[in-house]
């Protein structure tokens, strides 16, 4: 008899910065390949997977606004950046042999499907990884919020946040060696201690929908697969 999976369906949020590898800007294809390999491992376990990719490696609306642009216009540019990253991850996943679909919240018929909730669910049921591009489709939001929104819409069992460190710490572990890693936290801990892992809108949405957030290191090979098996190092927020 097959063992029951801990998670049937999950959403993985990868920030744009995570795709830069060692670069200062843009995409590192080796890093995309490494993340794709890990996603392949999770799909191989029989878990249904969808992805939300950020755009901070290319353009952030807030930076455009700080440079004098209209904020909403700059945010649309940021959303377009996330579509570029979604296409890059699609390419890496398909090279790894994982069937995918990109669905964009901003219509872009030549390169992606439009976001259609029920169709996205059907893709996952057929074993395809769905990559959601263009965030929520609305300015003044972030891709963290898009991740919580899509995870709730897709009925995911967990929202995985792949970061540069292996969980949530009491301080930045790269600056403070005494920083402690939390094994579990509540949503309210995250909000009240202002732990800079996800924005408040994303955490509130996850809380309202009883969606656990799991924070882990996306750069550790096989970490996503390990977390799905309940192994390795991570922080669970619930
Ligand atoms: N963005 C937006 N609405 C959304 C998601 C993203 O306007 O629903 C824009 C916003 O300008 C943001 C940029 O897209 O700065 C890139 O997304 P984000 O900063 O969340 O990317 P990450 O930090 O995860 O790389």
Task: Report the major sheet.
Answer: 9 strands, mixed
Q: What's the name of the CATH homologous superfamily?
A: Acetylglutamate kinase-like
Query: First CA to last CA: what distance?
Result: 30 Å
CATH class: Alpha Beta
User: Order of strands across the biggest sheet?
Assistant: 4-3-5-2-1-6-8-9-7
Element-level helix/strand string: EHEHHEEHEHEEHHEHE
Compute the CA-based radius of gyration: 17 Å
Strand content: 15-25%
Low-confidence stretches: none
In which range does the helix fraction lie? 25-40%
Number of beta strands: 9
CATH architecture annotation name: 3-Layer(aba) Sandwich
InterPro entries: AceGlu_kinase-like_sf, Asp/Glu/Uridylate_kinase, Uridylate_kinase, Uridylate_kinase_bac
Subunit structure: Homohexamer.
Organism: Craurococcus roseus
GO molecular function, one term: kinase activity
């Amino acid at each position: 008899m097959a063992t029951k999976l801990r998670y049937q369906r999950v959403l993985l949020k990868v920030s744009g910065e995570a795709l830069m590898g060692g670069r200062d800007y843009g995409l590192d294809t080796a890093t995309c390949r490494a993340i794709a390999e890990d996603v392949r491992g999770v799909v191989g376990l029989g878990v249904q997977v969808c992805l939300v990719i950020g755009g901070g490696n290319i353009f952030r609306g807030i930076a455009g606004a700080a440079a004098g642009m209209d904020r909403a216009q700059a945010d649309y540019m940021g959303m377009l950046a996330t579509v570029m990253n979604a296409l890059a991850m699609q390419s890496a996943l398909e090279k790894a042999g994982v069937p995918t679909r990109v669905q964009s919240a901003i219509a872009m018929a030549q390169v992606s499907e439009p976001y259609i909730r029920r169709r996205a669910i059907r893709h996952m049921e057929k074993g395809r990884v769905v990559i959601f591009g263009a965030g929520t489709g609305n300015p003044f939001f972030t891709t963290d919020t898009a991740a919580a929104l899509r995870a709730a819409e897709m009925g995911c069992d967990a929202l995985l946040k792949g970061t540069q460190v292996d969980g949530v710490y009491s301080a930045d572990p790269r600056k403070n060696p005494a920083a402690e890693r939390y094994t579990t936290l509540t949503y309210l801990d995250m909000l009240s201690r202002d732990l800079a892992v996800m924005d408040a809108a994303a955490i509130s949405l996850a809380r309202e929908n009883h969606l656990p957030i799991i924070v882990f290191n996306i750069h550790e090979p096989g970490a996503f697969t390990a977390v799905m098996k309940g192994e390795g190092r991570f922080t669970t927020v619930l």
